[in-house]
Amino acid sequence: MSLAALHARLVKCRRCPRLVAWREEVATVKRRAYRDEVYWGRPVPGFGDPKARLVIVGLAPGAHGANRTGRIFTGDRSGDFLYAGLHRAGFANQPTSRTRDDGLALSDCFITCPVRCVPPDNKPSPEELRSCRPWLRDELALLNPRVFLALGHVGWGACLDFLEWPKPLPKFSHGALVKHPGREVWLAACFHVSQQNTQTGRLTEAMFDRVLERLRSQLDLPSRRGG
After folding, report:
1. Contacts with 183 (C-beta within 8 Å, 6 or more apart), sequence order
2. Where are the domains of the chain?
């Protein structure tokens, strides 16, 4: 199966009643600033370079970001922070991500998430995570990346699950970089790029840049420091 075929199936998914109801309510009620826009209001597929060696795994679509625009981390402050950092690190051709057709392209990088529909309060249930797991597994199997970057604890857990990591499992810690015991695959950790972290200083641009710089080195890419 191709990524395009997988995503065509994904966007029709209605497995989780609570998430279906919420994503559609958000798309109907809308935020005042976007009241004249047509919201996506469906599951959100991953986005990026299908030949990427780096895959970034977040949490779920934003209510008025990806649930509105239809592209992961697009149209909200979390995406502003993420894509600006990827641009500085040489993985994105531009620092902004406003709409699905704004010309953004990723190089050697793909972005996805364990939950494809926006959850109330950004908190998917364990059952919803399990229900959505096959989509992530199929997507990652098609990509076959060399390095995984987990944004937050949920992304970290999803990566450990996909990689069938043997026990003892490594614990999430910002800046961590661990090699799989039996495979030529690396897993890195970073605080999530949510406003709760970026606006409080828990995650700064400099911290994010250091994580991405280390991953460039892991991928044998030249340093971007100073330019």
Report:
1. 163
2. 3-218
Residues whose CB falls within 8 Å of the CB of residue 26, separated by 6 or more in sequence, listed in order:
39, 41, 63, 64, 67, 118
Check if the beta carbon of residue 97 is closer than 8 Å to that of residue 75. Answer: yes
* Terminal-residue alpha carbon distance, the chain: 39
Beta strand 47-48 with 109-112 is: antiparallel
CATH of domain 3-218: 3.40.470.10
Contact 53, 219 (CB under 8 A): yes
Per-residue pLDDT tens digits for 28-82: 999 999 999 999 999 999 999 999 999 999 999 999 999 999 999 999 999 999 9
Q: What percentage of the chain has pLDDT greater than the value 90?
A: 96
